[in-house]
Specification:
Elements (H helix, E strand, L loop, with lengths): L2 H11 L5 H9 L2 H10 L4 H8 L2 H10 L3 E3 L29 E4 L4 H4 L4 E4 L6 H16 L4 E3 L5 H10 L6 E4 L12 H10 L1 E4 L9 H13 L3 E4 L7 H11 L3 E4 L10 H8 L4 E2 L3 H12 L17 H9 L8 H8 L3 H13 L3 E3 L5 E3 L2 H6 L1
Parallel strand pairs: 3-4, 3-7, 4-5, 5-6, 7-8, 8-9
Antiparallel strand pairs: 1-2, 2-6, 10-11
Helix pairs in contact: 1-3, 3-4, 7-8, 10-11, 14-15, 14-16, 15-16
Length: about 375
């Protein structure tokens, strides 16, 4: 049996986030681990392995329009390597043995600079709006939005991302041929048109509580940061933020109304310095900018003086808002030599920031006059 098929079989018989299985496959070839299950002592995994039909499983994967991606494949997300040997959360750990993927997108490329948006299933209109707007803005900025495909904030994030330029990724807790929740069948189809659906479970498998928790570690691992929009006291979304912290991803939280039960977890994370407060796309991008070389400030937030050099800005700032100032006094206040100050004032005049009066002094150009220049 080759390694890919062996991983396919092992990923089917073992639950996601199975520490012992992950450790075994990291030490031995998957084909040897599979043979050991088949030929070794009796046990739950061994019994499941002996009942499995590998060829039938592979055929079912292909028949449902899925592909099985393993470490070393071009499409394998590099961020998943952080799960190897990391601290367990809720007794789950380990890099996936493989992933079932469906959709036209390239999983590796889409997750190279992705951001997770997660939150409550029982979300409010406020939370849905914020999640959708954040997702749309991040998508327009070239970042894929990753979420879990659930009702509430997850769905709002996926729908917002679908309105943007970059495809979205949905990480599901069950088989990709069994849409869960069932009401999201159409949403998942739209995601698959340009993005991807991802799962650690084979076709035909249904979600369980443990599989949802294991799914959360994938969402955190394949992204550079996670934003929690709304979450009550007990929320699975909080588990995703915990994974983000363990994996040293950027943890972010959106504040909400203090009267809302769904604000409790984001506010607690912010108060206890476990997540950074964010309220806009620009703030999310700013936190992630060290990872991608910086972020361009949106046009609406740019000021005309942002383009001035340090010396030009120094001279510009000493010119009074009312009245005028001579070049000698401007040089004295700005700390530059008079000839340099004159050159800078002329440069500022050429760019429409200042104007020379009849007596030779300098004054600021009013904003409306500057716009007309």
């Amino acid at each position: 049996m080759d390694e890919r098929l062996a991983r396919l079989c092992l990923a089917t018989v073992a639950e996601p986030g199975h520490p012992a299985m992950a450790a075994a496959v990291s030490e031995f070839p998957a084909a040897e681990v599979w043979a050991g299950l088949i030929e070794g002592p009796d046990g739950p995994l061994a019994r499941r392995a002996r009942l499995l039909q590998p060829a039938e499983l592979a055929a079912r994967t292909r028949a449902t329009g899925q592909r099985f991606v393993v470490p070393g494949d071009e499409e394998w997300p590099s961020g998943l390597a952080a799960l190897a040997g990391c601290e367990p959360v809720a007794q789950l750990s380990g890099e996936p043995l493989g992933l079932w993927v469906r959709g036209a997108g390239h999983l590796g490329e889409l997750t190279s600079s992705a951001v997770a948006i997660v939150g409550a299933r029982a979300s409010t209109a406020y939370g849905d709006t914020v999640a959708a707007e954040l997702a749309a803005g991040l998508s327009e900025a070239g970042r894929s939005v990753v979420s879990g495909g659930a009702y509430g904030i997850d769905a709002a994030a996926h729908r917002g991302a679908l309105a943007g330029a970059t495809p979205t990724v949905a990480v599901l807790a069950g088989g990709l041929d069994q849409p869960y929740p069932s009401g999201h069948g159409a949403l998942f189809s739209r995601i698959a048109e340009h993005g991807v659906l991802v799962s650690e479970r084979p076709p035909g498998e249904h979600p369980t509580r443990v599989r949802f928790l294991a799914r959360n570690r994938l969402i955190a691992a394949i992204t550079q940061g996670a934003v929690i929009v709304e979450a009550a006291v007990r929320s699975g979304a909080r588990n995703t933020i915990t994974w983000a912290q363990v994996l040293r991803r950027v943890a972010m939280a959106v504040p909400g109304p203090v009267t809302s039960a769904t604000s409790v977890t984001p506010h607690r994370l912010i108060r206890e310095a476990e997540a950074v407060l964010v309220s806009s796309v620009a703030e999310v991008l700013e936190l992630l900018s060290p990872l991608d070389g910086g972020v361009v400030r949106p046009v609406g937030e740019r000021r005309p003086t942002d383009e001035l050099s340090a010396d030009e800005l120094r001279v510009f700032e000493v010119i009074p808002a009312r009245g005028s100032l001579g070049a000698g006094e401007a040089a004295l206040r700005s700390g530059v030599a008079v000839p340099t100050c004159l050159a800078l004032l002329n440069a500022l005049a050429d760019r429409g920031f200042v104007d020379q009066c009849d007596d030779g002094s300098w004054r600021l150009v009013r904003r409306e006059r500057r716009a007309a220049v």
